[in-house]
Amino acid sequence: MRLQWSHSVIRVRSLELMVAFYRDVLDFQISDRGPLGPNGPEIVFMSGSSTDHHQIAFAVTRGEEDASSLEHMAFRVDSIAQVRTMFERVTKDDRVQGAAPVTHGNAISVYFSDPEKNGIEVFCDTPFSVQQPQIQSWDPGLSDAEILAAVEAGFRNDPGFMPMSEYRAQMAQTFGENDA
Ligand SMILES: [Fe+2]
């Protein structure tokens, strides 16, 4: 299976310090921000490209005892079938901890941890854009079409729901990718 690099999520101590640095020095822009669950810590998503809703995200979840700032690193695959295959692979592998099928509406993912507890996300894009953060589960026992239909039904009424093609066209404009 071919995995393509997508993004990292980093635990931070100062959200504003980190967001300002990545905006000012690396030209990233905020694509979304909000709490991780009711009363949860805030997460800020940033990107410099229309091809990824976020290339980096910062969550205010880094405690003094956390040696690593890495929450997870994410890799894109081409299809729901490949995400399911990865879910089945890691579920059977006793080196892997906590395999979880998760969807953010704009992606269908499996989250798990490597043997040193670094978080990994393997996901495929969906045709939908949804305001983030969002999290639901998906059922690996369903067919690809059933999973996609369930994801659409689960997020259709959420803020910012639109075709991903429309979202990417907007972001391409934001990042000046269509400029000559
Ligand atoms: Fe992610």
Concise account of the structure shown:
This protein has a single domain, classed as Roll (2,3-Dihydroxybiphenyl 1,2-Dioxygenase, domain 1), CATH 3.10.180.10. It is 26% helix and 33% strand.
Structure description:
This protein is an alpha+beta fold and 180 residues long. It has a single domain, classed as Roll (2,3-Dihydroxybiphenyl 1,2-Dioxygenase, domain 1). Helix content is 26%, strand content 33%. The protein is built from four helices and eleven strands, in the order βαββββαβββββαβα. The chain has a nine-stranded mixed sheet with strand order 2-3-4-1-5-8-7-6-10, with helices on one face. The protein has a two-stranded antiparallel ribbon with strand order 9-11. A hairpin with an 8-residue loop joins strand 3 and strand 4. The mean pLDDT is 93.
CATH class: Alpha Beta
- Reported CATH architecture: Roll
Strand content: 25-35%
What is the string of helix and strand elements? Answer: EHEEEEHEEEEEHEH
Helix content: 25-40%
End-to-end distance = 36 Å
Structural class: alpha+beta
Going by CATH, the homologous superfamily would be 2,3-Dihydroxybiphenyl 1,2-Dioxygenase, domain 1
Q: Which compounds are bound in this model?
A: fe (ii) ion
Biggest β-sheet description: 9 strands, mixed
According to CATH, what is the topology? 2,3-Dihydroxybiphenyl 1,2-Dioxygenase, domain 1
Number of domains: 1
